[in-house]
Each structure stands twice: as C-alpha cells, then as structure tokens.
Amino acid sequence: MLKVSGLACSRGERRLFSDVDFSLGTGEWLHVQGANGAGKTSLMRLLVGLSPADAGEIRWRGETAPSTEFRRDLIYLGHHAAVKEDLTPLENLRLATALDGVTLNERSALAALMRLGLRGRENLPVRVLSAGQKRRVLLARLLTRPAVLWVLDEAFNALDVGAVKLLGELIAEHLGNGGMAVLTSHQPLPVPGGKALVL
Amino acid sequence: MNPLLATVRRDVLLALRRKSEVLTAVFFFVIVTSLFPLGIGPEPVLLKKIAPGILWVAALLATLLGLPRLFAADHLDGTLEQMALSPSPLGLLVAGKILAHWLLCGLPLVLLAPVLGLQFDLDASALGILTLALLLGTPLLSLIGAIGAALTLGVRGGGVLLALLVLPLYIPALIFGAGAVEAHIAGLDVGGHLSLLAAMLVLAAFFAPWATTAALRVALE
Amino acid sequence: MGNHGGLEGGIGVKQSIIHWFKYASPQSFYPLAGRMIPWFWAAAAVFGIAGLWISFFVAPTDAQQGEGYRIIFVHVPASWMSMFIYLVMAFWAGLGLALNTRVSGMMAQALAPTGALMAALSLWTGAFWGKPMWGTWWVWDARLTSELILFFLYLGFMALQAAIDDPRRADKAGAILALVGVVNIPIIYFSVKWWNTLHQGSTINLNKAPSMAQTMLWGMLLMALGFWMYSIAVALTRVRAIILERERHTEWVKHALE
After folding, report:
1. Is B220 within 8 Å of chain A by CB?
2. Chain B, 138-167: which have a CB under 8 Å from a chain A CB?
3. ipTM of this predicted complex?
4. Rounded CA gap, B149 and B165, in Å?
5. Per-residue b or e along A157-186, where b marks 16 or more CB atoms closer than 10 Å to that residue's CB
6. Chain A residues closer than 8 Å to C166 by CB
7. Domain topology for A1-73+147-199
8. pTM of the model
C-alpha cells in the first residue's frame, strides 16, 4: 500500500539520507531508528508531504502521494503539542475533527478521552494539564478519526509507564484491524513485530 | 460541519477566551483617530475634510496590528501543520481563518467607525457611506494582509516586514474607500468608488486564499 | 549535488527542451552568463554614449523649460526600466515556482536591486526636475506616486528575501510576493491615477513635455536601450555571485574558483 523508493533529503549543505526504500502492507509497521540529527523527523515530514524530497517518490495505493486520498488515510502526530491551550480537551478534539470535515458527537469524543485516562479533565483548559496529559489529548485523535496510516514521531515521549503501555495497545489494535504505522523512537517499542529502518 | 465554518468557529472561540487581543486592535483604532484632532486642532471644517482619510488610515493600521498573530500561534503549537495535512483543502481552512480575522478585527472597526465619525462632524449620510465603504474594504484588508502574514511567518522581524509588504498593497483600498466618503461630502456620485471596492474584494476573495495557502506551504517546509 | 535540481523529471522529452533546461542548472548557467556579460556591457556603453550625445548635443533646447528639461533623458528611461524589471522579475519568479528551476529564483533575486535602483533614480531625477519647474521637490503626481509605491514593492521584496535564511524558501516566498505585486501594480497605478484626477491641484504632467520632438524620442529610446543592457549585465554579474555563494560547497564551484 505504502511504497517509498529512492528518497533523499538534505538540509542546507548536508545530505541527511539518500536512497531510502521501504514498503508497508496491511498490518505492518516500520520502526525508524537513528541517532539525534540522523534525519528521523525530516523523513517523517517528507513522508507525510510537509516538505519536498530532493529525490525519490512516495506512492500510496499506487498513486503518487501526497494526494487528498492520502491525507484522508493519514494521521500524523509530530513533536508539537498541536492542541490549543485555551480550549478544553473536549473542544480540542471535536474542533480538530471538524476541521478534517468529520463530525464527532460528544459521546464518542468523551469515550476517546476516557480511554486515554483523561476522565474528569475533559472540561478544563488544556494549559492547566501536564505535558503528558496534553500528549494524551493529542493521542485521542487516533481514536476519533479513522485513518489507515499512522505516522507518529516520538509519540512515546513525555508519557508515563501506563500511557506507553496504552499507546502500544492502541497501535497493536490498529495493526490488527489492517492499519499501518510508521514510528520513530530511541527506545524499544512495546509493539510486536515490525520492520526496522536505520538512518 | 463544513471545515470552513469549523475554522471560523474555532478561531472565534479562541479569541473569546483571550479577549484582550481583539480589544487591543479596537482600542488602537479609537485612540489613533482621537489623536488627530489633538495634533491638528479642533477646527470643524478641516476635521470634516480629513476625517475619511484619518478613519481609513487608522483602520488600515488597526488591521495590521492583529495580522502577525493570524497564523503565528497555530504555527508555533503545530496546529497549522495539522491543517496542512488535513483531508480538507488547506485553502478552505485558510479562507475560514481569514473570515474569522475579519469578524474579529474588521467588523468591530466597521461598527465603531460611525461613532468615531461623529467626532469629526460627519453627517448621517456621510457616516452611512463610510460604514458601507469599510464594510466592503475591511475584508479586502484581511485578505491581502493574510498573504503578508503567511509570507512573513516565522521570519526574523516579521511584524515590521509585514507592514512593509502589506501597506503598499493597501493603497487602492485606501484610495477608493476614503475617496467614496470624500466624494459624497463633495456632492459627487459614490457608485463608482463602491463598485470598484467591491470588484477588488471579489478579485481578492478569489486569489488571496490561494496565494496565502501557497505561502503557508512554503513556510511549513 | 550541483545537478539539475528537480529537473530529472524533464529527461526523456524532446532533445531541444533538454538543451534549454541545461541552462536552468547553476553549473551550466554560470559560464554562459560569464560569456554574455562583456557583450551586454559593450552594448550598454554604445547605446548609452549615443543616447547621451543625442540628449545633450543634438536635442534642441526646450522653448519653455530651457536646459533643465534634459533630465527627462534619464528620468523617463529609468521609470520605464523600473516597471519593466519588475515584470521580468515576476516572470522569473513565476517560472521558478512552476518548474522548480533554481536559477530562476536567483535571477529574480539578482534583478531586484537593479529595479529598486531604477525606481530610486526615477524618483530622484523627478525631484530634480520638479524643483526648477514647479518650485518644489515633490508633487503628488500620479506617475511619481506610483513610482514611489513601486519602489516600496522592490524594498519589500528585497527585505523579505533577506529575512529568510533558507535560500530555497526565500526564493519561493519572494516569488509569491512578486506575483502578488504584479497583479496589484496595474490596480495601484489605476487607483492612483483616479485619485490624482479627483484631487485637483497638480495637473502638471512630468512626462508629457510639450511637443516632444523626434530627436528627443530617439534620445530617450537610446538611453532606455542603454539602461536595459546595463541592467542585464549587472543582473548577470550579480546572479554569478549568488550562484557561487549558494553552491560554494559543491565540487564544481571549488574547481571553478581554483
């Protein structure tokens, strides 16, 4: 489904990586590894179509990405909090899905927040939450918007032991349902199987 | 919900949680227009003559005040990135943000302008034309301003640069907007001025979200 | 590195297209520009000397304005060039955006200072002309005002490019701004003209010198050609400097500088 070939990227004068090839089918996931500055985040941004590649191509379902189809199938969570500090978790979740053109009723939004352990926090402004809790608000999006491909950049950062386990479960469920995931992380991930790509 | 309306709702909700930012621009508009009589003198004939120009220049500057924040907050916390990757067309979301900017910054100016016009001894019909011209002109200012805001996103000295980029492009709006009121006071027909403002608004509504989207994609790379 | 930046997609089309695209890469454009520069300097000198000769020695003294009018031989060509260069700049910028050719962005960047110089020259000579003619340095004449706004547009373009560190982002952002400017220039010019006719007062028009003689027109044309050739020569020199600066880490630049 996802096929990447000959991908190359340079920042300024420095060539970060070249000739990156991989492909993912249903239920598969890729663990992108590498030292700090090896270009993991750059690869993620290239993959989702935020920045252009120097060379190579990315195909999704046989079509050249990024396309609207690709974006509909994609959830990308990067380093940023990507939540609004002045809104509550519930508002954040519902507005974010509304921007994507999906209507989310309050019950499903609350259910997603519960699953991520934010019971009793759904109506507080996000700015009073801890870093880990903010991260959970963002992760709730994985449950509210159906997407085939999850691209998660350092998603396990700032999470406590319970949340790491929970995210692992979520990813495993997603893969079990025929989803795909591309993850970056320094530590070993609590997800079985998976291909590895070392930059 | 329509993604455009969702964006408008989101930005309005955010502004209501942080009212000071909206009020700053409005207060700026009021204080700048009130400074002119103090600098020039209270002579009613002169004030009436320069009122359209002053109100329009003040509206231009007040619009400019809020522009650097149009995309900056979303850029910083990563929500802009999410918008760029959304299945909804980015142009639609950008149009929503521009519409919200106008509702929060332009519309208050339109509503306040007749009150401030009274300070300059404008009569009722001139106030009506002033309001109408601002109603057509302020969305134009938001649309053009958004291009500048997107181009200077995350750039050193962005605020001042934004003024340098955007103010020359505001000149036609200023000329026809203030000109409409002046022409009315001089007893001339204002239809030409207003239709040209409207034409420019249509042109900008068509091109500006597109150019803004292109500039945002460049800024996100 | 130093390859045909993003143009690999064009390979496989007709031979002639490849031939032209070859010069879209900095590496092959650099020597080409170097070979062209002396010719444009020579042409600039020939046209400039001929234009100056006509404007100072051949063109008759104006009956009403005396010798002072001769400044229009600089003023009018400078105004023409300032407008023309903006169009050329926007053309390169648009080409760079559409085809992702690196040299296009560099050309736009190289043209901007020359365009700004022409606009400044036009404003300055306009002021010099105005002082003896109207007794004032500045008149809110439609053309002078438009020229001033054009000058601001050039400054904005250069300031934006200078403020962005990444040259590729600077090129693209500048290109969008140049295209927005090109759409706006006719609107600005038209609105300023409208504004000017509405506000009576300064109805003197700088460029409509009474009964423009044939020789005067020739003088202006030759001067304009001289300015044109000068602009190309300077822009090419500048683009070579930009290429060297941006490609300094590549092998061919290290080789070329040895």
Report:
1. yes
2. none
3. 0.91
4. 9
5. eebeeebbebbeebbbebbeeebbbbbbbe
6. 12
7. Rossmann fold (3.40.50)
8. 0.89
